[in-house]
């Protein structure tokens, strides 16, 4: 095995990418170099931890390759005769601003709570269904915007076919030979210019001829059929335009209008529009620019002018050359991507097309495939969540289905949170801004739901929302009794602070945390045992217990037979999330100097939350009662929250409790949905078992990952598992949740050597480190905010700063403590 650092880098015969200047980039990205890159794939002259490649076009949407600029997304199929590029704009959803708040439910809440405490769970369920569910009971769905079809003549039979996605540039390309001519198309999304760019080149002048269609998408099913519409028109002699409106859904009028346009700039040849076709003949190269917009301003305002927005995007690029647009996009993308690099060993298999790598890793090592997954998660974050955009939804921003699984919305009993697990550690802190704004926006209806559904102060948000930021319980009582969706999101605010030490951010977001805590201070009820405070009603996400007299019954809200109810009091996940959130709130109040009586009350309440309970069989209880799940291998690891991503276990640690967490993982097994497997990887990493995490990764990549590297949830593409894998791989290589930084805490045997650069730890430290034969060689710590850095280190280490010996304290348990200065770099070796 060799380290990728010794392997040839992405571009044949070129110095490492990091040292490239922007000026050089234009040369590198000349047509000739692109074609060299294609040859480089055969010659193994690329970095297999940043390039995925394929020798056949995508057969289905989820195997096409994604690009995105946070707002616009495209999936590129890479076909020869008829190319398809599926397009999204992140604000194109069904419906319009609406509310699901139902007034007066709080009057029934005491009765529901009484029934739960009397263990009459089905009766409580029915009452919750009638009075506390939001209306409509379901939510809106994310929509597909358009498809660009390119029809090439005489390109059906090809040789030397390749397509690839290069994570170092954010460009996806396809190259093939047809009738003696080599064609290449490169597609990227530009954030600075807010366009998607499709560049067509060939190695013989005058040989690019095609017909283009920009097609709308319409919902062919469901009650919203025929309330969405679009029209397709030519736009001058060099463009196509698509205009339309969103669908009504569930009685909510479709209020979004959109415009999408393609503009072609050929070099040489002829161009015309004919009906809805854009026809280009015998050009040397062609650049197609795609821009799109809706009238969406925010969750309660849809008064923008999509036409004006698209006009403005095209006006901005009017006098820019392709090269300058490319350079700006690259500089912007690389500003994010180049902050971190992960190198894991490469093997012969690492240079194979991705589908073969996925098969081969099952029996022989290819650690750099895990590095590719790690990088792909960072790539998707940069492509789907940028300051000012919407947060990444269940499918990020990529969706070709008008009725996508779970509506491609925001599920907050794990999925949205998992999307953002890697954002801070992978040095993409700015990409968390959409999530922070999302939390703020949720407090709007969240405050009304707290008052009207629960008679409580503060704000509450449950297990799902959409573009319109509805916050009431949805789906049915079995799912909708998850009251800690907002509380869980608030822990991300604290994590952002932990990784940045940005006191201004903490001050700004403190009211959001406080509002969530306020809700629970009203909502928590004394348990009949007289010891505990519990959420009531409560649920452990989507898991039916075998206790509490659960039996199959016909549910009024969902009009279907169910295994029973999930309603309970004080589920373990509720208790653990609140234990963390209250703790973070108390810490934040101390930093911000809030000494109010409320903070004291929160301290008292925190100690009364049900602590993690060990059941009769020695495993961690999912409920405050010693019940087991009806489904033995249930995919959610809700009660494991306190091990990862939470911290409860570390405050309450005993050997028996650690064992109880471990037992749950053993019971549930290694298989399941993509996101569930990513969670298992992170959980095993926290338990220090890198080989187990690596084994689960191999199953994940084979059984629950698409060829695009999007994760799957069963058969549905979903990006949570992709992001979760990035977070879990980090957790195998660095942990900082326990008051100090631990490097290589769960290193698999296969990953014996490697280098991780630019990865972040709590306390606002950035780390670069290298290991060989599973031994750390050198650690470089950049202190971004000053303050004490605690690091687990060998007894004989030296610390230097600017080449001079630096002082440090040695604590028990092999931890050293360095007093760092902001902006300074410390070397530990
Ligand atoms: C949760 C999960 C499902 C799916 C859905 C979007 O409800 O239990 O598996 O991921 O979210």
UniProtKB/TrEMBL annotation:
Gene3D superfamilies: 1.50.10.10, Golgi alpha-mannosidase II, putative glycoside hydrolase family protein from bacillus halodurans. This is Alpha-L-fucosidase. InterPro entries: 6-hairpin_glycosidase_sf, 6hp_glycosidase-like_sf, AFCA-like_C, Alpha-L-fucosidase, GH95_cat, GH95_N_dom, Glyco_hydro_b. GO terms for molecular function: alpha-L-fucosidase activity. The keyword Membrane does not apply. Residues 321-733 form the Glycosyl hydrolase family 95 catalytic domain. PANTHER family: ALPHA-L-FUCOSIDASE 2. Keywords: Glycosidase, Hydrolase. It holds the Pfam family Glyco_hydro_95_C. The keyword Hydrolase applies. GO terms for biological process: carbohydrate metabolic process. It comes from Runella slithyformis (strain ATCC 29530 / DSM 19594 / LMG 11500 / NCIMB 11436 / LSU 4). SUPFAM superfamilies: Six-hairpin glycosidases. Residues 735-828 form the Alpha fucosidase A-like C-terminal domain. Residues 53-298 form the Glycosyl hydrolase family 95 N-terminal domain. Its EC number is 3.2.1.51.
